[in-house]
Amino acid sequence: MRLMLRAVGELAFLFLLLSAAGSTAASTVYFKIGDDLKASCDGTAAGEENASTAEYLLCLGYLQGVVDTDVTFAEWSEYPRQACIPQGITSSQLRQTFLVWLNARPDHLHFGAASLALTAFAETWPCKKE
């Protein structure tokens, strides 16, 4: 239950963070940076070196929240979808996609985790321009 409340809180914060993305500030504060999310996602699945159910589920929930936020913003406004993920892609595949993308860009670890995940998904599954 505690993990679920934490995930809901993170998703709510992610929504607020992304909704304020258009504003500028003197310094940007991220709830999670790429390095944090990588630590939750990397090697935490069952059978992997650092297996941790809690971290693995946090990773999957965070990535699902990024995707759901992208879809929700497109439904609520004229904000275009950034990533058009095909039907049938699993949360585990989102995790693998994110890790492969981020591991190829170690200099991006200090950026916001949500923007990194969305960029990874948008580059992997771009939306067709209408």
Broad shape: globular
What is the number of beta strands? Answer: 0
Q: Could you say how many structural domains there are in total?
A: 1
Q: Give me the Rg, rounded.
A: 14 Å
Classify the beta-strand content into a percent band. under 5%
- Roughly what is the average pLDDT, rounded to an integer? 83
Distance between the termini: 43 Å
Instruction: Count every helix, treating DSSP H or I runs of 4 or more residues as helices.
Output: 5
Compact overview of the structure:
The chain has 130 residues and is mostly helical. It has five helices and no strands.
Describe this structure in words.
The chain has five helices and no strands. It has one domain (2-16, 31-124). 58% of the residues lie in helices and 0% in strands. It is an all-alpha fold. The chain is globular, with a radius of gyration of 14 Å.
List its salient traits.
single chain, 130 residues, mainly alpha, 58% helix, globular, disordered N terminus
Secondary structure topology:
Blueprint: H1 2-19, H2 34-41, H3 53-76, H4 91-103, H5 113-124
